[in-house]
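ok posting inputs for the 1,3-dihydroxyacetonephosphate job
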Amino acid sequence: MNVLIVGNIFKDVYLRLDERLNNFEIDEQGTPWLDFAFNGSNYNFFRRSSIYGGAAIALEVMNRFGHDAHIAGARLGFVGGEVIPNDQIAAGYRYILCRGNKIAYLTSNDRKDTVWANPNEAIDWIYIDHSAGVTPELIREIKNFLSMSSHTRVAAYVSENLTEAEKPLLDIASMLFVDGKLSHDIKRPGSVCEISDSEIVLGEVTQTWRVERTDLMTRSTTHSIIAASVFSYLLYGKSVREALKLAKLNVENSSLSGTISLEKLKNLAKNYDDVEADISLVAAQLMATGKGILAADESGGSIHKKFEQLNILDDEAHRRDYRNILIGTPELERYVNGVILFDETTRQMSDDGRDFVAYLTAHGIIPGIKVDQGLVNFADSNEKYTEGLDGLSKRLDDYYQQGLRFAKWRAAFEITNDTPSEMAITKNAEILAKYAKACQQANIVPIVEPEVVYDGNYTIEQCADVTSKILDALFDELSKANVRLDSCILKCNMVLAGKQYPIQSTAEEVGRATANILKTHVPETLAGIVFLSGGQTVEQATENLHAVLLNGPFPWPITFSFARALQDPALFAWKGDNENIDKARVAFKERLIANTDALKV
Ligand code: 13P
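and the output
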């Protein structure tokens, strides 16, 4: 495609400053100052490099994607894989000063208005870059050109706070790239791609991305690479999903020395897809026969309640010691495939000096993370939904970097005369699906946990009825959100009469009812099902687990993912006193053995 880029060119000069203090003058407050003479001989930079920024970035990306792109009015070419000035170009300078991980900019305020020059050749697209100083005059010239060249279309890249002069772009652009989020009162043109510091969003598709700032690319350079990559790939008629993925790979692999060619990006994408495919293998590993998943992910509030009943001091050291009893139990890997952690625990150290994530990984146990942020009431209602979608993609990316490979999100439903309502079921199912999708996009296996709480005065039939409705709504929403079921695990309550109901269900009844509901409401392609213990006694949970399995065969693997039913005896044995660690581990191991034995049928 023939693309005319409208924008300004900057020369970005990156100066990595020498961090040795003797190059700085220190004032009385101890602040290091730098006598900055730009002649280069007075001062030793660690490294000095420069690139053409602004519209030159768009030029480079588009050309590397195989389009014939030029910058209006600038004699700047793209030759042999490099941006080359054909002539002395009038580029504004920006200095980017880097010291350690800190970056500061020295830019001048006199942004130039962008001049328009009518092109000599036919133009398929005009791309108005972020760097353009859009004036009414420029808009008039472009409109004038469009009136003569009816097949030419316009794409524009603007910041979320549109200037008055930029507003007409909303009418003439068929594709808009926005740095930030377009306000809702603004009329949206055909397709809008919003780029934030961690996400690229176009329509229904969200792609996360991250670049370490120490890679020395300015924020505006990274955003320009993304916008130009999405634009370039969409011009080939490729899907939005593919375009956003390639943009992510381009920005994450580019450096000051250049962006990535389309051919290379396609190879990177292939590897990336292979990794993505791997999450079904992670799900399968989590469900590997004969073992379960330990839930040790109690939030701050939940662990506080647990400690309080035994008068255990709830401070960070005690929480670490307690988690260390469970995670550090010798041979834990014989009984569990994975452990679900709470955020705080991921940063705490095991006895061998590694953090718990590294410790588990080294022992062949997959570390997972609770990512929901607890329950809140719906407005004007006693029913609850689960919070935590804000910033979730970013958190998931960070957790992936930390080595966590699966996640958990719990929604809770109480059975009373008038709950759960259809509204609460649907809303929570929608949220669970959004969470699951975000996990898979971050290469993390989601465990979706819609829990019918055991507390309550209801019959086993009521529990069966409510559980089926919830499962139907959940799988409906998961399918709408295109969540891959082979890379998704269901964490479910057993079907039984409520704790306050006078006649408690027998293990035989629980086994039959639970198996029946799962077989009729859970799609066969799901990676697996795990049970929560929900406040049953430790023996009851183990016995009921075994009873369910006696009602097999099932199309999916089934196992346990208990918190209380695995942990309680250990917590009571420990009592907050590290003299009791061995006793606590013996008690814990007893539950691990009993529950893995219960899996044998
Ligand atoms: P319980 O087994 O104690 O119900 O906890 C499981 C769990 O992870 C709840 O989210």
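notes: Residues 295, 410, 449, 532-534, 562-565 surround 1,3-dihydroxyacetonephosphate (CB under 6 Å). The first strand starts at residue 2 and ends at 6.
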